[in-house]
Design brief:
The chain is globular, with a radius of gyration of 17 Å. Helices cover 61% and strands 0% of the residues. The protein contains 12 helices and no strands. Helix 5 runs parallel beside helix 8 and helix 6 crosses helix 12. By secondary structure, the chain is mostly helical.
Length: 213
């Protein structure tokens, strides 16, 4: 209904509509409307900081950078709590039910059924901790961990080549979806880091970026 209503809007009207959507907590249509309006400089609106209290709390608990978990969530669902992928991933951080159950067991979190994954608090908690598990599994390398979040850790283990630079490695990822995913996540991280601290970060110093909350 949103896209049908706004499809004939001018760019100015799309930008206004996007701000209305953000006030309602409709993050995905707001982001898309601003993209359609080519409002590239409206970073505060194109990169919303949704569910801040939950993200910051879980980033601290999972010991991961808040800009990274926000970047993942924006790429996964644009902060849509009831999002469902064709593969069955659910919620803000697009967790597969099996992954959510395994993560809950690993870290001792109560988890009853996949229906809980549409609850942003539960989803962000499990998603943040799963990111933490991937980060530790890949020796704090967030590029590998981001790829693993999308394609699975088993595949990333087979793809790793430590003899080439990380920016080159990204271009060798055999799955186009995962390659694009990692690139978009890195872009999102840069924007969120700038918004939160005023300090952009590049691929070359990505690994020196310490968790900051």
């Amino acid at each position: 209904e949103w896209y049908f209503t706004t499809r004939d809007f001018s760019n100015k009207e799309r930008a206004i509509a996007a701000r209305v959507a953000l006030r309602w907590g409709w993050y995905k249509p707001a982001i898309q409307s601003l993209i359609d309006a080519a409002a590239w400089n409206d970073l505060d609106f194109r990169f919303p900081i949704a569910y801040w209290d939950t993200f910051i709390q879980q980033a601290r608990t999972a010991d991961i950078p808040i800009n990274w978990s926000l970047a993942i969530a924006r790429q996964e669902s644009a902060f849509t709590p009831d999002a469902k992928s064709s593969a069955g991933a659910l919620g803000v951080m697009q967790l597969m039910p099996a992954t959510a159950k395994l993560t809950a067991e690993r870290i001792g979190i109560k988890y009853k059924s996949s229906s809980e994954l549409t609850n942003p608090t539960v989803n962000i908690k499990l998603g943040s901790h799963y990111l933490g598990l991937m980060l530790r599994r890949f020796d704090n390398n967030r590029i590998f961990a981001s790829a693993a979040y999308n394609a699975g850790p088993g595949r990333v283990n087979r793809w790793i080549n430590n003899e080439i630079p990380f920016d080159v490695w990204i271009e060798t990822i055999p799955f186009l979806e995962t390659r694009n995913y990692v690139q978009r996540v890195l872009e999102n991280v840069n924007v969120y880091r700038y918004m939160l601290s005023g300090k952009p970060i590049s691929i070359h110093n990505f690994f020196e970026d310490k968790p900051h909350y």
